[in-house]
Model the fold of this input.
Amino acid sequence: MTDHHHHHDHDHSELSETELRVRALETILTEKGYVDPAALDLLIETYETKVGPRNGARVVARAWADPAYRARLLKDATPAISELGYAGRQGEHIVAVENTPTLHNMVVCTLCSCYPWPVLGLPPVWYKSAPYRSKAVKDPRGVLLDFGFELPEGTNIRVWDSTAEIRYLVLPMRPAGTDGWSEERLADLVTRDSMIGTGLPKQPHEVA
Amino acid sequence: MDGAHDMGGVAWSGPVQPEPNEPVFHAEWERRAFAITLAMGMPGGWNIDMSRFAREDRPPSDYLSKSYYQIWLAGLERLMLERGLIASDEIEAGKPLHPTKPVAKTLTPDGVAGMLHRGGPTERDARSPALFAAGDRVRAKMIHPLTHTRLPRYVRGHIGIIERVLGCHVFPDSNATGAGENPQWLYTVTFDGGELWGEASDPGLKVSVDAWEPYLERA
Done:
């Protein structure tokens, strides 16, 4: 970032230098025939509109509604998740971990940003940030406070550091007062953060 | 390598800052940088461990001053420069200046869904029985390789319990250097908070990492 200042006025921000660099790269790589801009558009569209935490919410809702599915998910999550059509890049090997009244699970990647894309989409900025990557393994209760909730004192905490190609999905506890709800309605309660372990599902009155 | 990317337990980072209603990308250049990085994997021919090393192998001041997708971009540029797919003067000029190096394949729009669906599974057939079983006590080795590794510093030298045997997987320490996949048994190893952080640790805390067999010794 130091040797191309002569291309721009000095009042350009770092961000606009980055913008220009990305534009330059795309032009060069396209002209060399290495990338097809239409393929790039499709990749972006996929992760902006198709692959996101709604997928994971459907998995969790099914596990809440169907005990046999829950058992399959906890035993071997990759094929169980694939039953709903979610599979592939950054979700090749998935393990589901279940919250209970005495155990809260939290997922992190201290080394970078490993995250189960097929069920949660791309990770949020905070997940990739130094504060989360450093604190989650040492002070997960403090992390939860940063997210605005306090875990009951007797609850044990289990942190899963995604250091290999295994990706983790938290199966949160089903909120009370949802007996007889359809999977569709249950899925509305499942937040992204509840599947990372930095949040809880919504309560029934929050979705009315 | 012991770099700024290995952040588990460092004390300088401040509070986590969630962003309500966060968009998937925060700028158009992030969209393009993300997509170019994914698409270049095919003509580039590098593997995920090489990509990770290209991102993390930089001075802490550089690593910490870049945003996430700026690190991706720097890693991608390095991988392309190393392989002669692009030259520095071309990036400066913003256009090709040198003959194009032939590549085996590129990503077409028709190929996107299949590429994402296939992903890159890392499990391989085992060539030898697993050394450890669930319940075994192991110590994470005290190693400080100068090359890529996935054993975070905060567990090195500490004793944990094998919780799960995860199968035989591509070994990043070999794969990142181009020395081949060299598959090794992979385990979930669980550590008590007190073992990692001392008496100040939350008594109800357990932390696990997924560790390949060469990272571990019986304890």
Observations:
- Residues 51-207 of chain A form a domain with the Nitrile Hydratase; Chain A fold (CATH 3.90.330.10).
- The first strand of chain A starts at residue 93 and ends at 98.
